[in-house]
Amino acid sequence: MNERLWGILVDSFPKLLGYGIRVTIPLTVLSFALALVIALIVALIQYAQVKVLRQICRFYIWIIRGTPLLVQLYIVFFGLPSVGVVLEAFPAALLVLGFNEGAYMAETMRGALESVSTGQVEAGYCVGMNYLQIMIHVVLPQAFRTAFPTLGNSMISMLKETSMAATITVMEMFRQAQVINGRVYESLGLYCEVALIYLIFCTLLTWIQRRGEKKLASYGGKRK
């Protein structure tokens, strides 16, 4: 590695890491929170077999899962202004990432809800609990325990997908790498460096996910 490239990488690393902490991580966390809320609502509607709303949810899942994330970002950020809906880049990315991942997570949550035996629901009614109490105290805790590993994987995937926000001018970590490269023309070194930072972030999330899985397993009587 020549001295010029080394100097560029040393200088750019804190800048890229700073944008990762200030923009990429918040975008990931906020988008994931939105996706989780959407997924829970959609899954509960399907689980409850609310006919009209269930069809709307299926339509939403079909549309989102059948179209690329990049196209969805372009429609919201570049397309909606033509009909009078203008969003800043960061909120647009947050909404698109949240609704996109929410469709996939909704299927995860639906499967987790359906994995809880109907006998436990019936037992809840037998002891005098209403539907809402059964969902809160019986079904949802078990469903979240079942879905947790997959939801953790979704968050890790979302962290990497935030790089797509660079295409709509969100100044996140990958976009900053593009800006720096536009000045110094060291594509290989800079993009490998930003890949390393993504790897560090994903490794930390993976560690947190595994700790969470062990904690939930201990609550479920499966201490390792």
- Provide the domain count: 1
CATH architecture: Orthogonal Bundle
Cα gyration radius (Å): 21 Å
Q: What sort of overall outline do the alpha carbons produce when their principal axes are compared? A: flat
- The helix content, as a percent range, equals over 70%
Structural class by secondary-structure content: mainly alpha
Number of helices: 8
Question: First CA to last CA: what distance?
Answer: 45 Å
Strand content: under 5%
| Average pLDDT taken over every residue | 92
CATH homologous superfamily designation:
MetI-like
Poorly predicted residue ranges: none
In the CATH scheme, the class would be: Mainly Alpha
How is the main sheet built? none
CATH topology: MetI-like fold
What's the helix-strand series?
HHHHHHHH
Number of DSSP E strands: 0
SSE layout:
Elements: H1 3-47, H2 51-65, H3 69-79, H4 89-114, H5 118-126, H6 131-161, H7 173-184, H8 187-219
Helix pairs in contact: 1-4, 1-6, 1-7, 1-8, 2-4, 3-4, 4-6, 5-6, 6-8, 7-8
